[in-house]
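Problem 3 from the worked examples.
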Amino acid sequence: MVNMVSGLLLRRIFLTVAETSSRVSLGMRGQWCGFTTSTTRFSESSLPNPDSVVSYKQLKNMLSTHNIQLFDVRNQDEFMAGRIPDSVNIPLSQLEESLKLSPEHFQLQFEVKAPGKDDDNLVFHCQKGRRSAEALAIARQLGFNRVRHYQGGYSEWAAHEGK
């Protein structure tokens, strides 16, 4: 178990370093000489307001009453390594395209009912809250104004659930 957790942590560190190094380049003498632009839409102005954050207790209640459309925006390998029950995996990189699908195509692709723009039970989550905050911003830009996110993410869920 410890080796598996260590392996997952090392993999996550490697992926973070690889992602970071692809965005910036080192110049002579180790100084930063340039940055590439990112397509990420996340900024401090898109931080969620407190009303759009779902707590662990709220999430448990929503899951127990089956009053939730829970979308995990982590990568598929993270989702397969551990997930919150009843969550549907839509990696962040595919979210905008997926939310633009017709209800019929969405249901065919994800095997769940497509979320509606006025649904108040639509919740995103990721590992620790950063990607789900980005998902929140993307969904809001598409008109999903009542969307929320579980800021604690799978990390908090696993800690509470003893996983």
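Problem 4, a separate protein:
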Amino acid sequence: MVEDRIEWRRARLVNVKIEEGVNEITDPREVNHPRLLITMNTKSSALPELNSISFYDMFINPSILYCGNTKGLIFSHDTRSHANQTPSQLKMKGIVTSLQLTRNDTHLVASDTLGNAYLWDLRMKKMIVEYKGMKNESTRIPLHLDDEEKVVYGCDLEGYTRLWCKTSGRLLRTIPSPVPCSSTSVPAVVYCENLGNRPGNSALLLGAGDKLYVYKV
């Protein structure tokens, strides 16, 4: 159920097709896998920032679309409106590579190609927490929130998985990859505080190649 929820809230943006009346955003790489198709009935001039979107995450919750672009800008659009939208005034230093919206819709975790990772307050339009230590240059490396939304985590270009306290930004744990990493082979990671529905059974699952590693955290 958790995996299904995540997949439906995330769309990897590769092709952005802008036409008068209907705009479609799809990922052609996932032909044989479930993917999310976004169709917006809007004029092409309503979303000028879409022209620079590539390989980034998008969320709808339930009708607000959040995107990041190559200029480091994070912006939103109400899919129910045909009116022109202004940027959300959230600006990363590098190309936006990851977005994660919290369930209460008030905070957004974002990262960029320079290794910057922040927690943004969407109401105040300001960065409130910085997560330090990520190493990145140009790769699309996602950051994640655990199911309880207490921990921010992700694996960087050097293969180190870092876990931070969401509210304070304190680094909780650094776990090196058991295998060599590159820009095309960054391990996939999932952290859970209650693995197997067992309270206190926190663990990190790390997938690299054809192997799955489990770390007690």
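Solution to problem 4. The chain is about 5% helix and 40% strand. The helical segments are 2-9.
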